[in-house]
């Protein structure tokens, strides 16, 4: 359970940074 929760947090952080870089480029 904790393992998948950590994975979800990682994925969310990755998506957040992707959105941030997209915002910056536009």
Walkthrough of the structure:
The protein is 92% helix and 0% strand. The chain has one helix spanning 2-25. The model has no long low-confidence stretch (mean pLDDT 90). The protein has 26 residues and is mainly α.
Cα-atom radius of gyration: 12 Å
Mean pLDDT: 90
Overall 3D shape: rod-shaped
Beta-strand percent range: under 5%
> Uncertain regions: pLDDT < 50 for 5+ in a row?
none
| Count of DSSP strands | 0
N-to-C span: 38 Å
**Protein structure class:** mainly alpha
Largest sheet features: none
Query: Percent helix among the residues?
Result: over 70%
Q: Element order, helices and strands?
A: H
SS summary, helix count: 1
Helix and strand topology:
Elements: H1 2-25
Keywords:
rod-shaped
Summarize the structure.
The chain has 26 residues and is mostly helical.
